[in-house]
Specification:
Layout (H helix, E strand, L loop, with lengths): L3 E3 L18 H10 L5 H23 L2 E3 H10 L1 H10 L11 E3 L17 E3 L12 E3 L17 E3 L17 E3 L17 E3 L17 E3 L12 E3 L17 E3 L17 E3 L17 E3 L17 E3 L12 E3 L2 E3 L12 E3 L12 E3 L2 E3 L1 E2 L4 E2 L3 E3 L6 E2 L5 E2 L4 E2 L1 H6 L6 H7 L3 H11 L8 E4 L5 H13 L4 E3 L5 E2 L2 E2 L1 H9 L2 E6 L7 H11 L9 E2 L10 H9 L3 E2 L6 H14 L4
Parallel strand pairs: 3-4, 5-6, 6-7, 7-8, 8-9, 10-11, 11-12, 12-13, 13-14, 14-16, 15-17, 17-19, 18-22, 20-23, 21-24, 22-25, 26-27, 26-30, 30-31, 31-32
Antiparallel strand pairs: 1-2, 28-29
Helix pairs in contact: 3-4, 7-12
Length: 580
Amino acid sequence: MMREYKTHTEVERWQEPAQDTRNSSSVTRSTVQAKTTWTQEEQLLRDRETRTSRVTRSTVQAKTTWTQEELLEQLANNVQEWNNLRRLHPQMEVDFSGVTFDRQDLRGAEFSGVNLCGVKFKRCPLDGANFHKARLDKVNMTGASMSGANFSEAEIKNTQMRGANLNKVNMQGARIDNVDFSESVMRETTLSETDQRKNQYDETNLAGANFTNAEVRRTTMIDANLDGVIITGTNMRKVDLTGATMPGAEINQVNFIEARLGKIAMNRATVKETSFRGADMPEVDFSNTTLQDTKFVGANMDKTKFINTTLHNVDFSEAIMKNSDLTEIIHKKTKLNGADLSGARVTDVKFAGTELEQTIFDKTTFNRADFHRAIVKGTRFIHVDLRNVSGLETVIHHGHSIIDIDTLILSEGNIAKSFLEQTGVPEKIITALSLRAEQNNAYKTCFISYSSKDALFVRSLRDHLAFFGVDIWRDQESLKNGNYFSNEITKAIHSSEKFLLVLSKYSAHSRWVKKEVEIAARKGPEVFSPIRLDAFTKMSQNAWVKDIQSTVHIGNFTQYRRPDTYLEALGHLLWSLKGV
């Protein structure tokens, strides 16, 4: 059954269609107008054509009902006449759903408000075409040239635009859902106020595109070219821009919450009032970028570059910034509360006034960093060298922080005493650092007895004690061979002033440790400085273990994996090893 299309009397104002340069009627008219002499035959032919043209135009104006076939024929014959028809009857409802246009030149065609669901445009030029408020569902525009086309307020769903030329296209206010723009070119395209869902822009060139006030959710733009793009007031929640290039982009009031932004090149960009909360954005390049009033709360920013980046009122709270490069950043009112800067490179950075509460500096490399009046509380300085950090004595402490033994060793103890005190480093450790600086041989010689299964812990403990100047003879398992007990061990126990016994569930059942304890016991209980690695020894039924627990104070190293409690226990141990 053929569709019929009826017009309404109300006339709306139509946008002027693009000039159809292909139509030769204008050339013909100019030639006719230039001609001044006519033969009788030519004059008769001219009069006949004029009457026919008048009849055709009057017929079109008077006609109120068209079949789909008639409209398609009109469009196929002459785009300009088709556009005139649409202009004369702006309320005409046109349904081209399911139609296939094959190699038809549709440049500048008037498709505003037309139902184009299921339409296939096979190798059809569509440059300058007007799709204003058109319905495009399951439309195939793969590889089409649509430069300068108007899709404003159109509804575009489940449509293929892969590899299309969409330069300078106007999509303002369009609703775009599940559209494939992969490998298309969209330079200087206007996408402002669009509502987008689940679209694909993989490897798309969007240089200079404008996304002002757009709604772009769950959209994929992997490896897209967004050079100089303008994105303002846009919701890009959960968008996937992995590998996109955005140098020189202008990003303002954009929502990138939970977006996937890994390996983006955002150098030389300007980012203002934007949220990257919870975004997955490792290896992003923010070099020479200005970040202002922006939040990276909880974002994954592993291996991110902030070289020569300007930060103003930026919040990195709880962000993971492991192995990132912060070189020569300029910042003001920046928050790094809870940020993880493990393995990061911090070079020529001034943290003046920066909030660093709960920030993690684990194996972070500092080079000419300035902590002048930085704010810390619960901040973790783990395995870092603080010798190249200035301003530590001016740091504002809102509570204790954590410094581990490796930091003290890497810094060679060269850390401001006031900083150590206010971070909560145990007083006995601070005293031990002072004795070390004075090169005061304040400790007694020490023999360590332990089970080989605790060798890893003992190796670290030995190195830490040696750092503070304790002279140690460590029991070597290689000296014990079968039932043979080395005389060298016996001599070492007798010659050492202190017997450091490492009690654990392993050593409590070691016959070698038991024998060493028996030898040391002959010197009296005052030589013992035992420490406990686990709670098992409290329940041990071995007589020699129970005897030690009842006669000598045992240092508590059961929480030795925690940097702060380990330092506390180490301080007590050092105190027990001091000479008179």
